[in-house]
Amino acid sequence: MKIKVLLVDDHTVVLKGLAFFLSTQEDFELVGEANNGKEALVKVGETNPDVVLMDLYMPEMDGIEATACIKKEYPNVKVIVLTSFSDQAHVLPALKAGASGYILKDVEPDQLVEAIRSAYKGNIQLHPEIANALLSQTLPEEEKEEEPSVQVDVLTARENEVLQLLAKGMSNKEIASVLVITEKTVKAHVSSILSKLHLSDRTQAALYAVKNGIV
């Protein structure tokens, strides 16, 4: 039985390149392509893939939201994030959304093939760089001991919104666009969040949000 694969990426060159390469694998069947998260949801319902290769930044619906929706509606479908972003602000939200793997686009073709086969069998697949980063990145011990609800309560409603978007990997400029505020205002909110939660940088803030179920 062949592994049915759906490709999701908003770059045509990437889609066509992946499609061509995967078509050379005898145990793979390419069942469809999608250019954004919303289209991916429709395609999953239509084609019933075993594995979805998902980009992160796409119009209409990003890869993290699409992954969460797919796993909610089609829990047996495996999603592998295939992206260029290796920081925890992208990795953890993707894994929390239900991704079975997180692979960087500089991966060797043979490694990508093995990642798809392994995810299909139910294994978690992480690019070596991602695995090492996750193992080395931890929150300060004092933060782990504090009650999340108490910490979150000190944030304003707007700061909570900023923190949620930050944890999804958005830049200050992207957050400003979503919330219809200035980039300068976003920077001020981020500084306030870090101060109130006793965190040192954006990565720790994103980790805190993900680990404590804020996103």
From TrEMBL:
Keywords: Cytoplasm, DNA-binding, Phosphoprotein, Transcription, Transcription regulation. It comes from the Bacteria. It is found in: Cytoplasm. This is DNA-binding response regulator. One of its GO terms (cellular component) is cytoplasm. It comes from Bacillus cereus. One of its GO terms (biological process) is phosphorelay signal transduction system. The keyword Transcription regulation applies. Pfam families: GerE, Response_reg.
